[in-house]
Write a structure and sequence with these properties.
Layout: E1 5-7, H1 11-17, E2 20-22, E3 30-33, E4 38-43, E5 49-56, E6 74-76, H2 87-92, E7 94-99, E8 101-106, E9 113-119, E10 125-134, E11 143-152, H3 155-158, E12 163-165, H4 173-177, H5 184-192, E13 199-203
Parallel strand pairs: 2-5, 5-11, 6-11
Antiparallel strand pairs: 1-3, 1-8, 4-5, 4-7, 7-10, 8-9, 9-13, 10-11, 11-12
Length: 234
C-alpha cells in the first residue's frame, strides 16, 4: 500500500511539471502527507489540465457518510475495474497525484524502519489516482476526494514492501488523464510499463511514524546501522 507521501514542491513547480492551470496561490509544504489531508491533484480538462486540491481517502458518490474514506486510501490496480468503489472513477475520473517521494517500512513489528523513496533525478513522481465528488446527505458542501492505485512492488521497493504506488511515466500522462474509458487491460498495460530503475531510497528517522510530524525532519537521512554500532534502527 501507499500510506504516506511527500508533496513539498511549490505550486508553480507542480503546475509547470504537468502543464496545468491552477487557481491555487500557495501550497503548504507537506513532508508527511497522511490520509485525511488535502493534496494538490492534477485532473484533465476540456482545454487544459487543472491543478486542484482534494482530500486523500476516496468517498464514493453513493456513500452514506465520510467514514469510508479511511478504508479507501488505496485502490489495488489488479481489481479496481471490478470494485464498486473504484470502477466508475477508473472509467471517467482519473487523476495524477504529484509526489516528491513516498515512505515504506521494513522490519519486525515494534522495530519498523521507515524508508524514503524518490526519483533519482529529483523530479516529481506522478502516482495514478482516482477521484470522486461526494455530496453529504445533510446538504453540506460537496467534497472531492482521491485514492492512489497500487500494484505489486518491483525492484528495490520489493526488498522493503510487497506493494507500491502505480507510477505513471510522462509519456502516459495524457492517456491516463483522458476522458475515455480505461479497461482493466489498459490498466494492466500501464502497470506493466512501470519499472523503478529511476528510484532511489534511503533510511529516515522514525519521526515520520507520527502523522502530526510534518516537517523536513521526516525526509532527513538517518544514520546507517554501521554508523550506530550495528543497531537495526536509528
Amino acid at each position: 500500500m501507499c500510506g504516506r507521501f511527500s508533496q513539498f514542491s511549490d505550486v508553480e513547480t507542480i503546475a509547470d511539471r504537468y502543464d496545468a492551470h491552477t487557481d491555487i496561490v500557495t501550497l503548504t509544504p507537506q513532508y508527511n502527507l497522511a490520509p485525511g489531508m488535502d493534496a494538490a491533484i492534477v485532473v484533465g480538462g476540456e482545454i487544459r489540465r487543472r491543478l486542484i486540491c482534494m482530500r486523500w481517502g476516496l468517498i464514493p458518490s453513493w456513500a452514506k457518510d465520510s467514514a469510508i474514506a479511511y478504508r479507501l486510501i488505496n485502490a489495488r490496480g489488479e481489481t479496481a475495474a471490478e470494485k464498486p468503489s473504484f470502477r466508475g472513477a477508473l472509467k471517467h475520473r482519473r487523476c495524477l497525484v504529484p509526489a516528491d517521494g513516498f515512505f515504506e517500512w521494513s522490519g519486525p513489528k515494534g522495530r519498523r524502519q521507515p524508508w524514503f523513496f524518490h526519483a533519482a533525478n529529483g523530479e516529481l513522481l506522478a502516482f495514478a489516482g482516482l477521484w470522486e465528488q461526494w455530496q453529504p446527505p445533510d446538504g453540506g458542501s460537496a467534497l472531492q476526494t482521491f485514492a492512489i492505485l497500487t500494484t505489486a512492488a518491483a525492484g528495490s521497493i520489493a526488498e522493503i514492501h510487497d506493494r507500491m504506488p502505480v507510477i505513471v511515466g510522462a509519456a502516459a500522462h495524457a492517456a491516463w488523464l483522458g476522458a475515455g474509458p480505461m479497461t482493466s487491460g489498459d490498466l494492466d498495460d500501464l502497470i506493466a510499463a512501470h519499472h523503478d530503475a529511476a528510484l532511489s531510497r534511503y533510511r529516515v528517522s522514525t519521526v515520520v511514524n507520527t502523522a502530526r510530524n510534518n516537517t523536513a525532519a521526516c525526509i532527513a537521512p538517518a544514520p546507517e546501522p554501521s554508523e550506530l554500532g550495528g543497531m537495526n534502527t536509528p
